[in-house]
Write a structure and sequence with these properties.
It comes from Jiangella alkaliphila. This is Helix-turn-helix domain-containing protein. With about 475 residues, this protein is mainly alpha-helical.
Length: about 475
């Protein structure tokens, strides 16, 4: 039996979350902050995740490598490895006495095995639980194969990835596109924080195809497909607020687009880079990315132009530029009025009337809470009503924003009703951005905490954020 590392768990739970105020740091947030610390000092990307932190806390890993220990000490603010329960067991243990179980062959002999091909019966005719105990005992001599469920993932560690093909054709391109479509769909309906590692693994494997032999036509399509997969992977990191990882992968996707002159993919990646920077408080840099994408707007479809003008509007609103924001929203509306979905790249299918209303509504939200009269509320309502079942994250975030807006400048009872619906939607998501919006709603609701409906909303928000 492994002894849990309570020192590490308590140190993490004593550290407040920087993402969800009022809660303890989660395992994934600890992993993200360790990754950021290591990147700042080494210039290399590291990929610790909540699964790895869980292994540390469960005692599966008692002595992580030196750089990880240093980063964990710095992030959690402790002076020594012992403060985090890290012990080099190889130094402390001196030839322990091991009590070996009987050899598997002897165990099987004692159990009176049936003739070859017959099913193995439980020892002594006991129920299935005895069968499991028997199997566990039988495999002690081969490394504790069935020791506990927590070790199952360790068995996969030595597996090597399959070799990439030396030549690429249409079938491989379709595989890449299929992987990208799956990730995009999953992100819209479930959020991106839960399957980041799977997305990263897909990108690493398919990224190898860029070095394979291909015809010139296939090479162009391949770079665009892999770039699109990179964009989907980066967006998952963005949704998990792993900003450094996201920025690095977005730049990979951008390089893919530049390599083959794909103006459409370039516009999409720059739009997402802009939105991430705006989200994390770097509105000026976000505005630069959006305007860079619009340098040759004549090469883009009306839908893509609308997407980029809404990004500009969101940046300008964060910068407090009221008239410029309204002008950018007007340009976005004008572009969207001429949209022709049949001529758009396949990945632009998400940008429909609901998405456009939500994006412009988010931009006008900032002007409204600054004291200006805008159309933010009706646009956000249009987004909430228009998002279909496949776009749970977008609907939840627009609904949360509408609740915050109503709480700030409208009727608190109405805001509480909208907010409760938002919590119901967002509760099933693995999205830190959605969680941050819920935390913002809780802040806005504080001014009306005495209203019973708002008090119930605040209770539900606290419960949702804590989980």
């Amino acid at each position: 039996m492994r002894e849990p590392n309570e020192h590490l768990r308590l140190a993490r739970e004593r550290t407040p979350s920087a993402e969800v105020p009022g809660t303890a740091m989660s395992r994934q947030e600890l992993a993200d902050r360790v990754n950021a610390y290591l990147f700042e000092r080494t210039g290399r990307l590291h990929e610790l995740d909540d699964n790895y932190v869980g292994k540390l806390e469960r005692g599966i890993i008692r002595w992580p490598q030196a750089t990880y220990r240093e980063a964990l000490r710095a992030v959690l603010g402790v002076a020594s490895d012992r403060d985090l329960g890290f012990v080099n067991t190889r130094r402390l243990q001196a030839a322990p006495v091991v009590h070996l179980a009987p050899a598997p062959r002897q165990l099987l002999a004692d159990a009176h095995p049936p003739h070859p091909g017959a099913a193995l019966e439980p020892v002594g005719g006991e129920p299935d639980v005895k069968r499991q105990e028997f199997l566990r005992a039988a495999f002690v001599g081969v490394g504790g194969l069935l020791a506990s469920p927590s070790t199952l993932l360790d068995l996969l560690a030595p597996l090597r990835p399959s070799d990439a093909p030396k030549r690429v054709g249409r079938s491989e391109i379709e595989q890449v596109r299929g992987a990208a479509d799956l990730l995009v769909s999953w992100g819209h309906s479930h959020g991106g924080a839960g399957v980041r590692e799977a997305a990263n693994a897909q990108l690493r494997w398919f990224g190898q195809l860029l070095g394979a032999q291909a015809t010139p036509e296939v090479r162009v399509e391949l770079h665009e497909a892999v770039g699109l997969l990179g964009h989907a992977t980066a967006h998952m990191a963005f949704d998990a607020c792993a900003y450094d990882d996201a920025r690095q992968i977005f730049k990979f996707a951008l390089a893919c687009s530049e390599e083959v002159g794909s103006w459409h993919l370039r516009a999409k990646v720059l739009s997402s880079l802009a939105r991430q920077e705006i989200w994390r408080g770097e509105a000026d840099l976000g505005l630069t990315y959006a305007e860079l994408a619009l340098v040759r707007a004549d090469r883009l479809t009306a839908t893509e132009q609308a997407m980029l003008h809404t990004a500009r509007a969101r940046a300008l609103a964060k910068l407090g530029r009221y008239q410029d924001t309204l002008r950018a929203v007007g340009q976005a509306d004008e572009a969207y009025a001429h949209t022709e979905p049949a001529g758009d790249p396949p990945w632009m299918g998400y940008y429909d009337a609901a998405q456009h209303a939500g994006d412009t509504g988010h931009a006008l939200f900032d002007l409204t809470v600054q004291g200006h009269r805008t159309e933010a509320a009706p646009r956000l309502r249009t987004a909430v009503d228009g998002h279909t079942a496949g776009y749970v994250r977008s609907r939840a975030m627009s609904q949360t924003k509408l609740a915050s807006l109503t709480m700030a400048v409208g009727d608190p009872d109405d805001a509480a009703r909208i907010g409760l619906a938002a919590v119901a939607d967002a509760g099933g998501l693995h999205s830190r951005r959605a969680a941050m919006d819920l935390a913002e709603l809780r802040t806005y609701s504080g001014r009306h905490a005495g209203v019973p409906e708002v008090a119930e909303l605040r209770h539900r928000l606290t419960t949702a954020l804590a989980s």
